[in-house]
Amino acid sequence: MEVINISQEEDLSNNPVISFISSNKFKYQEINRIFERESKIKLEHIREHLYELQSSDLEKIAIFSLKNTLNKTINDYYFVEDSGLFIKSLDGFPGPYSSYVFKKLGNKGILKLMENIQTREAYFQSTIALRTNTGILIFTGKTQGLISEKISNSGWGYDPIFILNSEFPKTFGELGKKKDTLSHRYHATMKLIKS
To answer: What digits encode the pLDDT tens for the residues 13-34?
Structure first.
């Protein structure tokens, strides 16, 4: 499959079901809430552990995962999502290695690395790779924010340490479902829905 430009029109409204492939139930729940609120397309969850390319590029990782899904007989349209937390003062670490780093260090480890660092700017990036009848479309969403100085008691992944900005001084985890309209994943998913 070739990667085609996201500006090329692809009418998803004629397809009543689209499949999301992921082993992460939290990603599915978040994306499904966006679909339920913003689209008439039904989202189907296919639980599958994805193969991830070791790369510094989220787009390459997402495309690789999409091309290497085990179940090729699903709906005509299916997609995967890869995301990362990029911390400015750590030269973009953990970036595309966020999942692995989270398993090894967790939020405590990230805050340990950030001790005595004043510059706490960071951003989340989400990249969706969608397989269509004509190729692969890429949708990217980004959310700027800050790394907190302590871990909140709610949320999954890095959500308990990511603060959107001074307007929303709570972490993503503390925002609950309000996060669904502010996150990097929301921005990428909305681009997919509107394509």
So the answer is: 555 789 999 999 999 999 999 9
